[in-house]
Amino acid sequence: MANCIIAQSGGPTAVINSSVVGLVEANNTLGIFDKVYAGLNGIEGILNGNIIELSSFSQDDINRFRYTPSSGLGSCRYKMKKLEESTEEYDRLLEILKANDIKAFFYVGGNDSMDTTAKLSAYAKETGIDVKFIGIPKTIDNDLMYTDHTPGFGSAAKFIATSVLETYLDSSVYINNGIFILETMGRDTGWLAASAALAKLNGKQVADFIYLPEAAFDVDKFLCDVKNKFEEQNQVYIVVSEGIRTAEGKFVAEAHAQSHDKFGHAQLGGVGAYLKNLIISSGITSRVKSLELGVLQRCAMHCASNIDLEEAYEVGYEALRQASLGKSGYMIGIKRENNAPYKSSYFLIEADKIANNVKYFPTEWINESGNNLKEEALEYLAPLVSEIPDIISASPMPSFKVFNK
Amino acid sequence: MANCIIAQSGGPTAVINSSVVGLVEANNTLGIFDKVYAGLNGIEGILNGNIIELSSFSQDDINRFRYTPSSGLGSCRYKMKKLEESTEEYDRLLEILKANDIKAFFYVGGNDSMDTTAKLSAYAKETGIDVKFIGIPKTIDNDLMYTDHTPGFGSAAKFIATSVLETYLDSSVYINNGIFILETMGRDTGWLAASAALAKLNGKQVADFIYLPEAAFDVDKFLCDVKNKFEEQNQVYIVVSEGIRTAEGKFVAEAHAQSHDKFGHAQLGGVGAYLKNLIISSGITSRVKSLELGVLQRCAMHCASNIDLEEAYEVGYEALRQASLGKSGYMIGIKRENNAPYKSSYFLIEADKIANNVKYFPTEWINESGNNLKEEALEYLAPLVSEIPDIISASPMPSFKVFNK
Questions:
Q1: What angle do CA A315, A316, A322 make, to 5 degrees?
Q2: Within this chain, do residues B11 and B147 fall inside the same structural domain, yes or no?
Q3: Does the annotation list A84 as a binding residue?
Q4: Which of residues 290-309 of A touch B (CB under 8 A)?
Q5: Where is it localised (chains A, B) (predicted)?
Q6: Looking at the 3D structure of chain A, how many domains does it have?
Q7: Which terminal Cβ of chain A has fewer Cβ within 10 Å, N or C?
Q8: pTM
């Protein structure tokens, strides 16, 4: 029997290692390959010969790895040259695979990784080399086309929505409360910020306003909205994506940073801090707090969604199965079969179709004022956020396992 | 039978409502008072007649309230005048209690609340009014004297340590990693920052340096430590308390903010952002991230420590029991009976002794370099951090209940 290899690429998620474990256990069950290798630090590591044998680790290590957040095989942001420019790296990679008798390569990542997967697959076919290349989706941003959603998003959404609810309560305790701004990731798309809509108290959404990159942001309208709401309820809760833009397509945060650059100031943080200063300057109130969730939202295994972990596992499992059927140049997509009870299935989609596309948050799910979401968004989001797995919640402190440390 | 009243004061914690539920259920079991009232927004609310009847709510509401973070009765930062200055507020409060046939007053809070508790108790005794006043400890800062620790701290410690471990993994995925700075709360004491020491991978603490207000902070030594560590391992993880000070006792963050004030700049965030800029300016590396946990660390019920929740419940329970025995002017303290298995008991401590004291992190638990902790700190911290209660982890999104909304 030949061997296979898996590697991770791009920004980490809470569930990216579950996909690796799904693949390892698919091989244990289906018996397709002799050994499952892992490339450390993605394709960059493989090109440097940084390869370990995953299937030699104990089941205990594998079980802990499954519930360890962040890329436990290490990651990279390495982009291979275009085939037309040079085939050198492609040849080198294929040689390394050949030297290890590797007949299938699995890459866990987002758009760029699917680009790499598609190119490698095409080059192998072109040069008559029998290696299968399959992409496994991963990104908290949920911005891959064709797949209903991406593994990693559900857990990020759960952490964001939970944190919104908790910080809303925290910012509501006094007689005179203030304005709270929570900034999420999502430079190009609003999926992460949108998940804040799941935070409800007494059946009512706690976020007064949710701003996404897909709706043009107008500073004057924003201040007017906030002023009116503050006068009405003496408290305002705002969720904002780091990627909100003006009608001209300029990042609101960057527009601000540039206006200060000439003084040589240090950077002022993100758009949340900018909006905070804006509100204070406008005289609405000086009681304004802003909070950036930062990398917490992509690694918070302690608040992971079990459905997300399970689907991450399954796309890994399915990737191995499809490679064994001779497929190459595809990514595993998730199809939503049913919402209540939630049910999904898996399918193949050409990796190059994923590579050059971005799935934006549907503008028809944003209200007319551009400052909140419609019910359709909640119907989409809610089933992806489920319970925290017992193995995580039952432990005083997590016992994580990674292979790159 | 007469009635009793409970109110919350100061900054919220994840477990402050559990103390209220402990008290309500103590009364259900022991049958001491007719009704349990709650003052909304602390003493400020009571003085405005803002009182509800807690014992009239359903058991379902009470159960959900027990696992709801942040002061669900509302809070205040109201300091009563000194008795020598004016007894007007004291008389008004006692009249309100009398009008509602209230014979016991319970105040959940920190130093200031214990000051209020002590003063009210003394004044009632002095004027021959039969109302008992008992304080219930609460603060994430863990800075109350005599009690082994305070309810609220264990859950904050669990969230901080867990976030340290997860963000450490997140910041470790590339071949060339950078420097990560996590800033915790704790303006006067280092208990919160210290809890980062619980974050371990493969049995080894992941934080390279932990800086507390109790050890004088020297910028040059800091940069030297960071530079050496970065050269050694191409990655540094730093935890810093917002309250770190220079040898002269000046807040490091403020020293910085002031140096920029003359230009009229907006505030640059906390000490984490300051240290980040310092490292970049010093040329060690430009790959530096800083993250402020902010209010998340005091309201993260989704990562609460069950032992903390239980103890919060028990101090509420014990407060009612002690009032029924005729005690007044005391706070309920926690005594650690055993570390493994962890066991605690409860005792009375004069509220005025708590009011005018601060419990600092023991300097003998800090290493000689002032940049890390000794084993004794871990022995103290570890038992306070336990599992997440099932009721929280099993729910896709929490169903919280508060009484001030």
A1: 80
A2: yes
A3: no
A4: 291-292, 294-296, 298-303, 305
A5: Cytoplasm
A6: 2
A7: N
A8: 0.97
